[in-house]
Design goal:
Number of strands: 0
Largest sheet: none
Strand content: under 5%
Order of helices and strands: HHHH
Distance between the termini: 64 Å
Shape: elongated
Radius of gyration: 22 Å
Helix content: 40-55%
Number of helices: 4
Length: 85
């Protein structure tokens, strides 16, 4: 099926920017949006896990181990007594 959309220039620019950020053509990006909104998922055979690997590669090394410890581990000095009665 072919559908022609007349988009306002600012909407077109926004969609194009989002498509480029994801490494997609505008046509492929809009196709993804329509598929998602239609509740149609990509066939499982096409999912390889590479997308997750690529996302992790982009953020690898942004934080040091110490920074990760601060963000994701509970600080025991912040412990408070809790009354469970």
């Amino acid at each position: 099926m072919t559908i022609t959309l007349e988009l306002q220039p600012d909407i077109e620019r926004g969609l194009l920017a989002q498509a480029l950020l994801q490494g997609l053509s505008l046509q492929d990006y809009v196709q993804q949006i329509v598929a998602r909104e239609a509740h149609v998922s990509e066939p499982l055979a096409r999912r390889t896990g590479q997308e997750l690997i690529d996302i992790c590669a982009q953020v690898r090394g942004l934080l040091t181990d110490d920074e990760i410890d601060v963000l994701f581990r509970r600080n025991p000095s912040a412990a408070r007594p809790v009354d469970l009665s």
